[in-house]
Amino acid sequence: MNRFSWFDATSIKEAFEQVTATVSEHIQPKGPKDAAVFKTGGVDLLDLVKEGLANPSRIVNIRNIPGLDEKSFDKKSGLRLGANVTLAEMAEDPVIRENYLALHLAVNHAATPQLRNMSTLGGNLAQRTRCWYFRSLDHECFRKGTGTCFAQDGENEFHAIMRNEDCASVHASSVATALMAFNATVEITNSKGEQKTVTMEEFFIHPSDDSRYECILKSDELITAVIVPPVSSGTKSAYIKQGARESYDWAIADVAVVAEMSGSTCKKVEIVLGAAAPIPFKSMEAIGQLKGKTINDTTAGNAARAAMEKATPLTKNGYKVDVFNAIIKRAILQLV
Amino acid sequence: MKDKSNQSHSAEAETEALVNKNVSRRSFLKGAGLTTAGTVMVSSGVMAFDRPKPQAKKAIGPGATTINLRVNGKTRTIAVEPRTTLATALREHLQLTGTKIVCDRGSCSACTVWLDDQPVNSCLMLAVEVGDSEITTVEGLSKNGQLHPVQEAFIEHDATQCGFCTPGMVMTTAHLLRNNPDPSLEDVRHAVRGNLCRCGTHPNVFKATMAAAKKS
């Protein structure tokens, strides 16, 4: 690791006075070399620093800022999770388990117990992709801002099968898969103290739109909370992650389904795929296919096939289409 | 040639002296290493500085700063740079080498320690951010010379092979039993999900943990 100085911020204002760049700005080939960057859990940042991708001159710790680790729940306004709430706190939260089952399952299947104790929700959403070409110092890849996507005809067995035309990385957060299915929003606070709330779809940036960033955060902005809207009494949800093994691994494919049910009829539904595309991917095709239908083997299978209709697998990841077909169908059937 | 034989002679003599002094395997290896290198490096803040006063500054580094670490019930003062991970601080500054660094990326959990009773990866935590939290390492599990029930069960059920994952496995399973004295096999499997063992000794880890739960 390169040498860096350390600043322990005790307020958001203080943190903004120190920070000069986002990690994404800093690691671009033409980005600022001398940078002071935010750190919460540090899991992703220290990995980038150890790999030599990030060489910050100062790390500004925002993990100890009071208030950022609060959570609250109200049946009317929903769930509010401070950016510094850890994944472990979410995994063990009975409110999340009872009201947002898909989120509970996604968090419990994310990372390891040790990492969940360290990782914060804000850091999880702002983390960079785990694509091995992106993480390699030797590859000046498209996702770093310039260059080509080495995954297109390289080692791409774990890469994207949808919207992968320019960059085939997949977004690393499986928690985001579930949050998007619950139509969660991200609260962002800037250095002037102004706040804005964006949808998960607005938060993530597809590489074809801007290859340098995975989310909209600028250096004078910070995630302060994630808000998950309330669910009705008829809401049911499911989440399935398929990895190469049951123990710690990244998802090969994951899916979150959140539906408003009336008996076995699906009145409203959201279906989000993780590890399918460079961003968490809401499948409008699957949603359109399932909405208003009675859930059974046929309708669930049709929705899964619809989700995969536009898949464009690469040389080594065609199997992911079959995996998605299976887990989407299985997740839908779990609703009834 | 003459030099070489002298060296080997002096190393032998040193070995004998060390054996006679009944020193541990680790301090022997370190002593032998220093003899070969012919230099003395002091990495411990306790040795390098004369009783430094800890600084509680907001901004530190990039050079070394003295900090207090509460480890296994004792407060230790060391001098570390901000980039020093907790794992490195424990191993190289405090000589608590039970904690292993294997992947150094949070993927294998061999470096698991407890931070205020929560298992964390000490390779992905900086020593300067520990603050007032209490660290427990595998060296802190035994009480009054008595091994922790999990450690005894690991020996009894042959739950170690090469041994690199063992301290992390022990810290994880001991933490599980602390919060869940009567775990199911599934609870044990869930708890050690992050602990990689390339020898494949998981079945014996499960057996040992279940046995330790029954005993305690």
Structural account:
The complex is a heterodimer of chains A (336) and B (216). Chain A has 336 residues and is of the alpha+beta class. Chain A is built from 13 helices and twelve strands. Chain A folds into two domains: 60 residues, Uridine Diphospho-n-acetylenolpyruvylglucosamine Reductase, domain 2 (2-Layer Sandwich), CATH 3.30.43; 269 residues, Enolase-like, domain 1 (2-Layer Sandwich). In chain A, strands 4-5-8-6-7 form a five-stranded antiparallel beta sheet. Chain A has a four-stranded antiparallel beta sheet with strand order 9-10-11-12, sandwiched between helices. In chain A, strand 2, helix 3 and strand 3 form a beta-alpha-beta unit. In chain A, 55% of the residues are buried. Chain B has 216 residues and is α+β, with helices and mostly antiparallel strands. In chain B, 41% of the residues lie in helices and 12% in strands. Chain B is built from eight helices and six strands; from the N terminus they run H-H-H-E-E-E-H-E-E-E-H-H-H-H. Chain B has a five-stranded mixed beta sheet with strand order 3-2-6-4-5, with helices on both faces. The longest helix of chain B is centred in the first third of the chain and has 20 residues. Chains A and B meet through strand 1, helix 3 and helix 7 of A and strand 1, strand 5 and helix 7 of B. Strand 1 of chain A pairs antiparallel with strand 1 of chain B, so a sheet runs across the interface.
